[in-house]
């Protein structure tokens, strides 16, 4: 496992002791206020069922489709609440930590053409705000991290808020309650909430910068997936409040990339 100041990469396939040769790395980055493996597990709706499936690790899921690939989960400090005595990190700092954590990931044990270099191909899977952290990291990736741009061969975005609108609405509404709750717990609200409710102009500028990175590095395998059903975002923040549902708006993907919609129960 690679640890870098709150950014943790864990190889979940193949087993660390395996001598299987691999030629590509898949790195899955979770979103806001969650962690691995929770983000990547399908949970059965039956209360008495133990048939939960981690689609990144289950042999019948992603590992059965990717051949000679290593699969990592990437955890970063995404909590809505933090200790009041800690200095909070900005998105730029999180992006830099992400770059460092990815670059420091373990080299494969088996000998193959990519094991000695920094240009081992990478495919990212990024959920929600994790996608924003990722594109910020790739836009910032210069000097010692430039090799990570070259190595990135594909990205799958899952409900990443490229437009930011729905998240801004919820953040503005929820912030007073979140601050009150944090105060009671002797904590403070993460600075990430300020990033979510920030200017759409800044987000648009970031997306334009990422689009240019894609063009400059021939990164044309970029997919975005989003729900078409309604999600009660307010009750996700305060599940005990009887508030009417609010529909998630379709994320605005970078131009000339691929977009796919899925039903709510995916």
Automatic annotation (TrEMBL):
<dbReference type="GO" id="GO:0016020">
    <property type="term" value="C:membrane"/>
</dbReference>
<keyword id="KW-0496">Mitochondrion</keyword>
<dbReference type="InterPro" id="IPR029058">
    <property type="entry name" value="AB_hydrolase_fold"/>
</dbReference>
<protein>
    <recommendedName>
        <fullName>DUF676 domain-containing protein</fullName>
    </recommendedName>
</protein>
<dbReference type="GO" id="GO:0005739">
    <property type="term" value="C:mitochondrion"/>
</dbReference>
<keyword id="KW-0472">Membrane</keyword>
<keyword id="KW-0256">Endoplasmic reticulum</keyword>
<dbReference type="InterPro" id="IPR052374">
    <property type="entry name" value="SERAC1"/>
</dbReference>
<dbReference type="GO" id="GO:0005783">
    <property type="term" value="C:endoplasmic reticulum"/>
</dbReference>
